[in-house]
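ok trying this again, last paste got cut off
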Amino acid sequence: MLIKINGEEMDVAEASTIQDVIEETNAPYTPGSIVCLIKGKKELEKNISKYKIRTNKGSIVIQLDESDEAKPLVDIWKNQYDEFVDLNIRWSTTTEVAIGPIVTDLEPTSEEYKYYEGDVVLSLSSFSNESTHLILLKDNTTNVYSVPPFNKGIFARVIGGKKTLDNLTDDDSVSSIEPIIERSTTKDIVSVSDLTTVLEEGNELYTYMSFDIDEESPVCVEHLFALIKDGKMKVSYESESFLGFYELASLEKPKEHVTKRNRGTITVRSDGVGVGKLFIYRENRVLSPNHTTVGNVVKGMELIDAAKENEFITVKAEQGRLMLLNKTQAEATEMLSAAGVEHMIDGLVDDNAIIVEQTPQHTIDILKEGKVITKAINKDDLCTIKFTDNAPRSVRYFKLLSGLLENPVGQIKIHFAVPGMHIVIFEGDKKAAKGLVPENNPVDKVIRGQIGITNMASKSAGLIGIRFEDNSDFGPTAETFDATNIIGDITSDYDYLENLKEGVVVYVAESNNES
């Protein structure tokens, strides 16, 4: 049976499941994500009211007449519009442009009617259904167009591309005709998470959304990349006009490239309430100076239409992120070579060393410069942390302060270290620490290697600490247990930290260790 997957038609076995087709085609898909299932093209197009006619001179947009009188003509259009593709402009006058001919089963009439600029008519030239033409009116006129006995032959109106229409001549042609999918036309698009769903003839399946990036917004584009975890993004909010992705909300970003927010536009809120939130638009919205454009959906807009709150979408960037942190020098060199970028090493040159800094930081800047400088450390010097699920606010604070919210390697700076005290305390941020309510407080004792944060119960809220021995009285920041939030455990060798001095930067990463 014939189906479509990600826009490509293919023949699959009867009773094939979504999982079967994904495996057979090797379609991009991240487990845990939804897929979009459409019953078929005609099911989708029954709700569509706008079409874009592309020519070599530009595009014309028409909107269908939804009246009962025009319905027989609209049905003919929806069933046969693709027959006008690749046809020439048959004639062009001061009042009209004609495209055709095609063959229909319509019957002509001989009445004369008044027509107005923008009317779109099906005309049976020479009173023959084998010479059916599409007539687009450039001006008001009275004429005999041999139209069918329905609504004077009018089935649509020109609502966009008048300049293109005026410029067309009989030397031009139609390159494509595309239904314009809007949020209001997606009633038959559904999200599916059960990959054992059996497909039927004519089904359309979309497994991923791809996007291109706006090269004028390097900082905010990196914010978009940071939201992609294991090849997917989680929908935080759904409305008729957009999907919201709020995992990195509150992170301040500069105002960069501002454009119209059209369907498929991706923006980051750079000012006002909701700064740091990312939006993908289902419908056109007015331009806002508070939104920086970071990209546009290239494929898989159907997934954006189908997705609901708390669902995951598989995403794929046309230009991948050049994030080198937490990679070995050798891995980075291979990655950069494939991108045509020169890898320059500052300091430790060991192939197995772990990269902790890169300059430039942002993908777009790296591509523009054609080179990147990396700094690496020995793997044993990278402090890895297994975060707890019982202190979400405190863990987010730590990731925000260190940079782990957006990067795979972060930095914390030693604030206090005294040999023999068996404790090291790192700098905090009093402003960001204002919301650190008590959570996951120690009960009987603090275990060696636990990492903790001082909460709002103390004037020193926000400080971060590690103890190098068990303690039954005080937490990792030397505070009482009620002023201490435990955020996790160090999973790497950390004894060397006790000997470091104030002001030294320690590089941290989230542990992959599940124990």
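PB: full thing came through this time. The chain has a mean pLDDT of 94.
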